[in-house]
Amino acid sequence: MENLNQKNWTEGLKASKHPVIIDVRTPEEFEEGYIESAQLINIQDSSNFMKEIEKLPKDKDYYVYCRSGRRSEMACQLMNRVGIENAYNLEGGILDWKGDIKK
Hints:
Order of helices and strands: EHEHEHEHE
Shape: globular
Number of helices: 4
Strand order of the largest sheet: 1-5-4-2-3
Distance between the termini: 28 Å
Strand content: 15-25%
Structural class: alpha/beta
Helix content: 25-40%
CATH topology: Oxidized Rhodanese, domain 1
CATH superfamily: Rhodanese-like domain
């Protein structure tokens, strides 16, 4: 797991051959706006979250964010525990995001 600022997070995302963006907020937060191509896996639904991350391919690079960076940091740590080595947390979350947001 690695905490990255927005510049490094987006550079890594662009350079990756197999990137996946994961939003770990609630469905209600997701509906307020999300980073393009993000898939929602709500970390607050803990049993479902673990089932979903265990299904993820281990050979991809996962760029993870939440509202402020705390939940996504925890999500990256959980992803590491299930064997996903390339999990990158967006420091400051979507609150500090300067890029486009989809609705």
